[in-house]
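Hi Y.,

Following your request, here is the sequence exactly as I used it, all 322 residues.
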Amino acid sequence: MALGLNDRQVRAYDFARLTHFQMNGARFRVDANLSSSSPPVGAADKEQALRRWLRGVRTLVVAFSGGVDSSYLAFIAKQELGDRVLAVTGRSPSLSAAEVADVTQFVTRYGLRHTFLETHELDNPAYVANPPDRCYFCKQELFTQLQALAAREGFAVIGDGTNADDLHDVRPGRRAAAEQGVVSPLAACGLTKAEIRERSRYWGLPTADKPASPCLASRIPYGQPVTIGKLTVIERGEQALRALGFRDVRLRHHDRLARIEIAPAELPRALDPVMVTRLVAALKPLGFAFITLDLEGFRSGALNHVEADPPSVEEHPDHHLP
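Below is the corresponding structure, written out as tokens. Let me know if you'd prefer a different format.
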């Protein structure tokens, strides 16, 4: 049953859930010497708090996306728990082949126990409808399956890679984590994204400077249905853009209009007439009628503040792009 927690309540419960939580009908208390009145200061101290917590839980399933945060959590957990940590990656059409490859390389390099878990969020009409809280339905599917897997395999705790900065962003998935008893040790230890990158560089992790890479569905404006066809087009389009040398890039799918977001520093290169021709040649074959470049550049979570996409080009045939 959904708890109906709002964002403020979820943030308030983070620390409590880290040390007192219920899973599979049993109650757990973890004494990790964490204190909300005297939190650790500095990234290295916060990492030590994380290690104490890990030693207290003894077994852990990590919801592992292969991004900066969950990779760092899985790496530190492996150091503390060895084979008593299991990294699990949800796999569906919203996860790109490039991300699957990154995940596989990371777990192989560090000897992590790992498995892919097939998720079926596209079978849920609420997810397909693509409301502003779409991520809730995706995480609900993932965390429900993780709970069943943890029960079967005898793991006591499920943790995700939410960091301290994420608690101030629009994160509908946090509600699903609260409902399913998934804890966020990085956030509870106060580790910010910058600090996680700092510690990842200290340990030489290849993900230290990896750009953020949310699921492909995040490129579709709210209110526009999520389909396998759109996800495939987005993946192919972003592959083409990276092949042209752009690193921080998003291809926003606005029906027949493609909106390219790239890092501001790369805008001059993208505006070069020769590159413009190459961009059009790369994306038009994917079915777009219009290829546009967002002059504000790449912004992570750019669609979080837009609840509905404007009417499509077809709905206003008298409004033409130059």
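DSSP finds twelve helices and nine strands in the chain.

Thanks again,
Q.
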